[in-house]
Structure formats: structure tokens, C-alpha cells
Amino acid sequence: MSEDPKLKKNVRVRYAPSPTGFLHIGNAQSALFNFLFARHYHGTMVLRIEDTDTKRNVPHGEDSQIENLHWLGIDWDEGPDKPNPKYAPYHQTERQDLYHRYILQLLDKGLAYKDYATEEELTEMRDRQKASGDAPHYDGRWYGRSEADQQAAEAKGLKPSIRLHLPENHEYSWDDIIKGHVTFNSDNMGGDFIIEKSNGMPTYNFAVVIDDYLMDITDVLRGDDHIANTPKQIAVYEALGLKHPNFGHITLIYNPKTRKKLSKRDKETLQFISQYKNQGYLSEAIFNFIAFLGWSPVGEKEIFSKEELIKLYDPTRMSKSPAYFDQQKLDWTNAEYIKKLDLDDMTNRVLELVTEGQTDVAKQVEALKLPDLREFVYQICRIYQSEVHKLSEIMEKVVYYAQITKSHIDYTQLDIFDHNEVVKVLKSFEDHVKALKPDVAAPDFKEMIQAVSRDTGVKGRNLYFPLNVAFTGSHSAPEIDQVLKLYSISTIIELLEMAIKNS
């Protein structure tokens, strides 16, 4: 590296999404590391919207990006919603005049030129190169062409794109924050590349240079898939006589099964942050998990608060190797965060998911129309907090227990026990329930179970196994006295009678 990162001052980084859809986990990774970088060095994080590819922009795409970044716990100091007059505007479509001003500079210096080649001509050129085994490249056919040639093309109604001319056999290199020294040769970069399209729109590799320069960006952290763009951007910086920022290319996220970059075809893995939110992953857990996709702190500790991650973040510990998406690790991380939640907070988060209704199970909970849904959810959270991996599992429990008498319970689980003893336990419990006085608002079910044990002489597994099956449908259940508090007395009696009948 060219400088000690621990001495960094006046840091300015940016996260620059395109409003083309939901926030992908790979983009969230880039945003998160830019956030950690900025906050660790007490610098500035900029949110910039790269919306020049108007055909791919989707309605509310920008709002979706911002909403999901905020949910993750990522904020910024400047952006469309926090404009700094010195650097605004923050949408590329509002910066067209700025880009064209620099295009004209390059044209005047002879470092860029107009290209009137038609798409048919370019296709024929690429086909010919492919047939001869050459790497695809622009052959420079319009470089140095006369004014007369340009006027003739204009007379035909052709609109030119603008290309940057690359010097032959020129090295473009940089000291990457993550990868170390990287070098590209101009002869292997595909030839002179377009910096302004025929419709007057700048290309990504030109607009991003102008934006980063005018916004005083000091460090650019982005995905490893951008590494081939970096020499082109450095070429623009050099042509304009500008100093380029520091670059760091973050390892991509890979599928551990295919050993390939995570793609939208990987159906086993959720792709978008909104999907994780809707499934009941906690934002704190996702933040923690993504931070370990391409970086690791010193030591073995794996659960960190956002504040701890900001303090510990060290770009020299960014990984050069692929980051493999470990679903089991994510579920474990989320479960650890759930265990630490205050029960009221946990309940509120579940109810928020129900209200938003973005999943089938959330809609099912809403459709139950429970008179005191909050209390029911609270009790489910209290019972299962230490067992679930995501909040959608709490919603599944709510649906199950709210409709327990309509559920298919496998009573064959009881076949391993003595039939008469099972019936004796269940009938004894039924007798105690029926003996409850009407004014008893909160029966002591734990004491009731102990009374059944005293009455029947049945203890331990032989006592609890039948009760678990009767009231939860599973022989492995949490404290059954807590589950019983979910039910009305009539429901408890109905469940007991079903179990007696089928045991």
C-alpha cells in the first residue's frame, strides 16, 4: 500500500448504487465496508445514485435501496436526502453538463475522438476477430479521421459516440488496498473505449471518474467484479491530468457448493436484503454476518455490535480469497442475536413482520384475527426464544398453536409406552383441568402436572412424553406448562380428549 491506513485523514468514500432493483447482498457488502471504512476513520460517506442507465431503472428502485440500507443500520453523511451544496447533485442524470464539459476537454486535446461506426459495422468487426482467434477489441477505425469524414457521416444522419484513445503498451497500475499492486497493459484492455454514448449519456467508466473527482472521494471500495473497470478509469484520470483515489476491490461472495460467484440462479440462497428482513433475520445479525464476508478481526470472537465492528475494522485484514456464503453460520448468528433480544422488542419485531405481510406465514398470522395477538406472540416468543433461528419460525408457531385442534397430530409417537399408563396420565390431567374453579384466571399448570404424577405414580419421561404429544404434537417440547398458557380451558380439554381417543 502507498500509505499507512491507520494515518488516514479527511477520508471520503462513496456507495453508488443503480436504482435498478432491490438491494442485493453483494451490494450490501460493498455498502457495509464503505460504511465501516468511513466511520472507522471518522470520515464522510457519500450516497450517490448512478442512474444513467435509464432503461434498467425501476420505479421506487432508489427508495428501496435507501430503505434497506437504513434497515441494515447503514447511514451516510451526504446524498440526495442530505445534500452538501459543494458536491450536489447526487444523481448522475442531474450532472450531464458536468460530464460533457470534461468530454469537450478531451476532444480539444485530441485524447478523445468521435466514432461514427454503426452497430452493424462493430458486429462485423467482432465476428471477424472471433473467427481469426483475436481477443475482441475496437480497432481504432475512427481515430485520426478527417473533418471531412466526420461531416460525411453526419450528413448520413449518424450520431457519434466518443471514445478515449489509449496509448500503446502503456501500464496502468495501482496499489490496491486489498489486493496489493495491480497492473494492466493498455494493449489488453479492448482498445479505445466509449466514454460518451451516441445519445449524449456518459458511460459508467467516465461518469464515475468525474463524480469521484468532483466529490473529493479519497478511497473507492467496491466489488472485485469492478477490477477490469479500474484501469479504464485510471486512463481517464491520466488523460485529464487528475490524481486518482485509492482503490480497494472487495472479494465477491461465492456459493460454497458450486464454488462459483453467488448468482440469481442460486435458488437455495436468498439474494436480497428485503428477503432476509421478511424472513425474520435481524438487521444486527445480517450486519455482523456480512462484515465477515471478506474481512475478519483478530481473535476467535464472532458476535460483534456495530460499534465494535467500526472500532475494530482494519482494511489490511480484508481478504483476497473468495468469501463463501455459509447459511448455517448465518442462521447461528441470527439465533445468537435473537437470544439476546428483550421479549417486548422481539414481540414488536414479529408483529411488524405480520403487519407488513410480505410472506405467506405473516399473512396466515394476520388471517387468524386473534383477539389478543400481541399477548399470544409474546408468550410464543418467551417459550421459543432460545430455540428459533429466525422470527418467521415464531410466526409459524403462532399459526400452529392458534389452530392446534385442527392440526394433524401423530399419536403413534405414544405407541412405545404402555397404553393404560398413557391414558391414566391424560385422564388424570383432564380431571384436574375440569376441577378448576371458573374464577381461576391463571392456573398453575406446573403444580397440576406434579399433582398428576402424585395421583398416578408416573414420573419423568413417562409423564411428560404423553403430555408433550397431546399439547404440542411433538414428544420434544419446551416446558409444557408454558405452552398450556397459550390455550383456553376448552381447548386443553379438547386436546386431551383427542389424545385419549387416539392413544
UniProtKB/TrEMBL annotation:
Localized where?
Cytoplasm
UniProt name for this protein: Glutamate--tRNA ligase
* One GO term describing the cellular component: cytosol
Keywords (alphabetical) are:
Aminoacyl-tRNA synthetase, ATP-binding, Cytoplasm, Ligase, Nucleotide-binding, Protein biosynthesis
* Membership in a protein family: Belongs to the class-I aminoacyl-tRNA synthetase family. Glutamate--tRNA ligase type 1 subfamily.
Q: Where does ATP bind?
A: K264
Q: Which gene encodes it?
A: gltX
* Gene Ontology MF annotations: ATP binding; glutamate-tRNA ligase activity; tRNA binding; zinc ion binding
Which organism's genome codes for this protein?
A: Levilactobacillus spicheri
Motif 'HIGH' region location, chain numbering = 17-27
EC number, as in UniProt = 6.1.1.17
Q: Where is this motif: 'KMSKS' region?
A: 261-265
Q: Where is the Glutamyl/glutaminyl-tRNA synthetase class Ib catalytic domain?
A: 10-332
**Record field: catalytic activity:** tRNA(Glu) + L-glutamate + ATP = L-glutamyl-tRNA(Glu) + AMP + diphosphate
**What's this protein's function?**
Catalyzes the attachment of glutamate to tRNA(Glu) in a two-step reaction: glutamate is first activated by ATP to form Glu-AMP and then transferred to the acceptor end of tRNA(Glu).
A Gene Ontology biological process annotation?
A: glutamyl-tRNA aminoacylation
- Per UniProt, residues of the Aminoacyl-tRNA synthetase class I anticodon-binding domain are 373-486
What Pfam families does the record point to?
Anticodon_2, tRNA-synt_1c
Q: How does it assemble?
A: Monomer.
Mainly resides where? Answer: cytoplasm
Fetch the PROSITE patterns from UniProt: AA_TRNA_LIGASE_I (PS00178)
- The organism sits in which domain of life? Bacteria
